Amino acid sequence: MIRYRALFVGMLAVVGLTATCASAWNEGNHAGDWTKGATIKVFVDPIPAGAPAGTAGAVTEAIKEWNDAQAGFGGLTLMTAGAAKTNSEIHISWGTNFRGFAATLPTKGPDPGFTKTTVKIFVSVDKGLDARGITRVLKHELGHAEGLGHSAKSDLMKADAYSSNPGRPPSVADLNSAAPFTPPTLDDRLGKNFLWGTAEGRSQAVALSNVTLDGTNFIYDYNVHALSLPSLTDPVTEFTIDMLPDIDPGDFTITAIPVGWHADFFDGDVDPTPPGLDSEAPSPSLLSFLTDALSFGIRPGQTFSFEITSPFGPQDTRAFTGSPSFDSDVFVTSAPAAPVAESSTLFLFATGVAGLGALSWRRTAPR
Q: Does domain 2-26+196-360 fall into CATH 3.40.50.10300?
């Protein structure tokens, strides 16, 4: 992961490179399975004799962290009390001989003996995990069950979460570590609020993009506007773009960034071969623009501009905004796409998109 920070700002900002960390969100397999503000019963199979001591407490801890993270905006509530096969919609099961440490099935579907369809979570008890390891994998899997996918920017929800070897799945030692647990991040909460929150939002954004061809380079201009309404009081403090496959930091240059903002690139590439936490799809790489402090955010009524330049032409992708009150708006926009055609075809494609006008972004889901 690489950070780009503005060294000075004029018509175009000059950017340098340093290192940092942050977080973000992606919709997962179960993003359409629940209703806003719902209470979901969680059925936990009897804990087997071979499970580590403290496994029941691990379930309680993992559920509590997600419930606490969403309470402020009226998101989902998970509940084991009173859970039965007649009313439960998440089913935690224990087993052996799994490929990885845990997995959440990608489809909410029929579950033998259950009245309702369930999202089923499998947790291994024969991989050497102790109660701390069980807690960690359950927190990650419950994030998926509630609708979050993998995110290259989330220490909790990235595909290599908890790993001491970036790009590789965590080891038993990583999962059983005595280090403090990773709580749901700010941007995990952005995703949960967008999907399931019921509280009135305090920030809302709209955006326009413009792509032009300047000689051999495409210029991508992004203009983010914070709406001004009496109920909207918080600034927009994040603007993130899902980068398309095979696009690396060397494939684009950040050429304009507002004062008090920095840009981070998060590589979504992970090794899919060793057994990991689950079977969800990997995250795309992410280019994230973030404020250095709240005072630099996009206040209601303001419009801020961001710009990148690349030799590669545009394709549609996803972008989203974030705020300190966990409000997030999602858009479809353009970003550089790695070439897959012969050079002559590529030239025709490039000339065809030269001078693209202002492209409207649209939110992909209602607030």
A: no
